[in-house]
User: Fold these one by one.
Assistant:
Number 1:
Amino acid sequence: MTNDATDRLLVGVELGGTKTIAVVGRGREILDRAVVPTTTPRATLDAVATRLKLWDETFRPQGLGIASFGPVALRAGTPDHGHMLDTPKPGWAGADVLGPLAAVLPGPAAIHTDVTGAALAEGRWGAAAGLSDFVYITVGTGVGMGIVSGGRPVSGRMHPEAGHLRVRRLPGDDFAGVCPFHGDCLEGLASGPAIAARAGKGAEHLAPDDPAWAFVADALAEGIVMLMLTVSAQAIVIGGGVGLGQPQVLAMIRPRIVALLGGYLPGVDAGSIDRIVVPAALGGDAGPLGALLLAEMAVEQSSGVASSKRQ
Ligand code: ADP
Ligand code: ZN
């Protein structure tokens, strides 16, 4: 059974805002790794491509997965597939991320967001292991969501942007929020920069009992309830610097979710919520492991449908 999914040698690239991690691996095992700073698209992608060429000769990987910061165009068959959209990161708007990396490996390639990659990894090996329907939420510099539905990552027009859901506010709260598009959307209320703007100092410097956390927890609970009702999630996995760095927020979110649901969803109650809303488990490896899972999906898809790249 040399072609079993767990036997495949694959390449994964996590393209992050500050650093890019490329790995070659088999299943969860990472055989080699390269880390390059994310500077200009040219310099970063050239450095990664050089390593990928080397790995192609040494390991003969079967596919490539890229888990990228966003927003990124995901519709296969369109001219901008795999290109960055209008990102604020200087020099990256419009950059082709998929093309230059896919060109150096003969196998099929796939791209999705870094959050979706992390979601897939948590679903295979981490906090949502074995589940088919769940949401991974990173609460950090932004609020990002990866949604897995029926075992597949959700994307359509682009990728889910549920961090920009408009949430109800706690009565009397008039903080304007920091989202440049919406002000007080979820990201505008609960991201690290939002907390810093509200509290006047960095989120990591706030005491666990600072009054600001109640607003953060409330906004997140509102957003999570919308997601639970919409995608019928079996679990909500919370990661990111704020999400993991402030365990009291998770403890505040859980009863608030139960209260907001009002007993409407069977099986979601005070006794079960700790198993439904859970912290991420894979840490920094979720990104590269997720990229490997995107590579696995590319290989599986191309074994049924001839990849356009191979003609
Ligand atoms: P990114 O979202 O950029 O990938 P992180 O998930 O680490 O990276 O999020 C960075 C944000 O999280 C910053 O706004 C930072 O202030 C905040 N942050 C990091 N660590 C903590 C912590 N322990 N407690 C609260 N906020 C934190
Ligand atoms: Zn917004």
Number 2:
Amino acid sequence: MAKSKSIIQRRKTKVIEIGGVKIGGDNPIVVQSMTNTITSNLKATLAQIRRLKKVGCELVRVAVNDKDALLALKELVKRSPLPVIADIQFDWKLAVGAIEAGVAGLRLNPGNLRKKEHIKTVAKLAFERKIPIRVGVNAGSLDKELARKYGTGAKAMVESALREIKLLEDEGFDLIKVSLKSSDVSQTVLAYEMLAEKVEYPFHLGITEAGTILRGSVISALGIGILLWKGIGDTIRVSLSAPPEEEIRVAWMILSGLGLRQRGVRVIACPTCARAEFDVIKTAQKLEQALADIEKPLTIAVMGCIVNGPGEARLSDIGAVGTPKGIQIYLKGKKLSLVKQKEALSTLINLARKLESK
Ligand code: SF4
């Protein structure tokens, strides 16, 4: 997992550490997701966390929504291959229990956990154990008083975050990260920009309730992408109404699209047209599936013809270009061999596996 060159100037923030994963400052932007199994179902939850890790998730959040979830948490934390963050909504006692169970981080929603004394109790305990807290504001669950005063837009979200940050800071607590999530891209971007002027804490980015896989990916890429482009954001979660592994795939695509981080195989493929000399679409799809487990950053160009093909292929680690005589294979910018259409996919897979092990 290499950091690729990027022209983006990141916002200067404090650095926090969650279970050994550094967030903020010049550290790589961290990819997160959240399980959607019943947390107390240890077998299912751990299996999902393992699948998430396999596709590149670096931190995982689990809902701690009842006593059963809390009871399972200690074992979950012990066996999870990723640092576990407890998501707490209404019950401060669950936050205390989660800290005692050994979670690496907490997420508190200021709209749903409002009593000052409760937040202060949690902050005190988290401070003793050096457990970071995310102030996770969500436009859908804002404090009623703030919603009345400011509506549900950026201003209300920022105000909600600032109030909670103040409560934590009053306890001497500064292991904070902040998120300001809304399903509205413009309001989300505005909120993060406003808060970036006021605090130095790292930000967790996301567009909440973004929707099913296609819409959710597009909306998330817009919201998260705009903010990352402005240098704002230290960790991201793509919220999709889809298996959480898909969130991780999209998160990596956003990061690699902006040149912020690269992980795994990036297939560059042309859209095809009447000039295409082979089945680019099927080959590209099959390549992505077959090489989904590779962590090493690799770029493979799959191009239909010689119009743009040789140029893209030479810029990639591996390339395949349709020609009237067959599929021209490239390796590290140089022509390697000419293969038949039916051999193209297996040739590309074999080359990728060879590069993976180098
Ligand atoms: Fe069409 Fe060739 Fe361009 Fe692909 S590379 S879209 S086949 S012109």
